[in-house]
Each structure stands twice: as C-alpha cells, then as structure tokens.
Amino acid sequence: MRLPAAARRRQLLGVALDIFGERGFHATSMNDLAEAAGVTKPVLYQHFSSKRELFLELLAEIGADLSSVIAKATVDQSSTRQQLEHGFDAYFAWVDHNRAAFDLLFSAGTRREPDFLAAAHRVEDAIADLVADNIVISGLTRERRVLLAHGIVGMAESTCRRWIAKPASIDHAELAAQVSELVWFGLRGIRAAELPDHPADPRR
C-alpha cells in the first residue's frame, strides 16, 4: 500500500521502535527494518539515509512526545504543588504506556554511543527546563533551579527504571503521587532553610 511520505515516515518510526526495542541497535539491520515494515530497502533509504539517522530521529521523537505530555499536564495548573503532582503523574503514565520507548531512550546500550547519549541528554535537558519553570523559590537563580530540576528528573528516571522491572508492585498513579510528595516536601525544606534560624522577636 502506497502511503503519503509523512504517514510512511511515521509508520517506519513505529516499526523501528518495535524492532530496535526487541533486538537493540547493533543487532538490527536496515534489511530487518524494511522487512518488518513491509517495504523495500530503497524505500527505507528514501526516508532515512542510514540506520543511525533513523535511530537518532526515533530517540528525538520519543523525547519530544514525553516532553509534550509533561508540558500539557503542567501548563494550566494553578500552584507549584499541582504542577509537580500532574507532571509526575503524566511522566509515570507515559512510561506505563510506552515502556519500550522509555527503555530504548534511557537504556545502557543507548548510553554507550556518544551521539545516542547526547540525544538522551537533550531530552533530560528539555524536561529539566520544564521542571525549573515550576520551581518558585525566592533567591534561587535560574541556573540553580535548573540544577535542582535535573536532580528531580534523575529521580523520576531512575525510579521508573526500577519500577518497570516489577510494574505490578505498585500502580503508576500511586507511585507518581508518592514521588511528587517526596519532591514537594524537599522543595519546602529549601524554602525553610532560607529563613532565619531564630526569627527576631517582634516585641524587641
């Protein structure tokens, strides 16, 4: 079946996610991808000049989708706490429904390749920027908020890696709620640390 170019490209990326997720980058050939997609190898090369280009675009697509989901979940929330809660819920729900994509983006195999690692870092940077926008603590510079945001992103990422190994142990929504509580009270601790240890007695 002949598809419009944009639709064919989306189809090829979807097939690539399945095959790369199952076999890994190095064990997958362009022949494998063309056969799985039901196209000839020349058709595949019309859209992607190499297997590496295809993989990099796939990582970018995965990252853009995850970032978009988080942005949409947090943009209309009225408080920092709600932004955190909805952001974590969106992140964990996305992982729950896109486990192969999450694993492909953040797997050890992906991180062994410098250009693939750079792609994963771009995703982490994009999400950290979203989180930093939602950290409202008086006196913290943008640079410091981004640094803290990377810690929060790392927490979510490592928690999800551990969780998807045994997803039946806890529902994604419950886990997201607990992690958001942990982060929220951690941020409140930073606020408290900024206050004087012994506030001045108003009677003096």
TrEMBL record:
Any one Gene Ontology MF annotation carried by this entry is: DNA-binding transcription factor activity
Q: Which GO terms describe its biological process?
A: negative regulation of DNA-templated transcription
Keywords attached to this entry: DNA-binding, Transcription, Transcription regulation
Question: Does the record bear Oxidoreductase in its keywords?
Answer: no
DNA-binding region in chain numbering: 29-48
What region holds the HTH tetR-type domain?
A: 6-66
Q: Does the keyword Kinase apply?
A: no
Highest taxon listed in the record's lineage: Bacteria
**Signal peptide, first to last residue:** none
The protein's matches in Gene3D superfamilies, at most eight in alphabetical order, are given as:
Tetracycline Repressor, domain 2
Q: Which PANTHER family match?
A: HTH-TYPE TRANSCRIPTIONAL REGULATOR RUTR (PTHR30055), TRANSCRIPTIONAL REGULATORY PROTEIN (PROBABLY ASNC-FAMILY)-RELATED (PTHR30055:SF160)
Protein known as: TetR/AcrR family transcriptional regulator
- Name the source organism: Candidatus Neomicrothrix subdominans
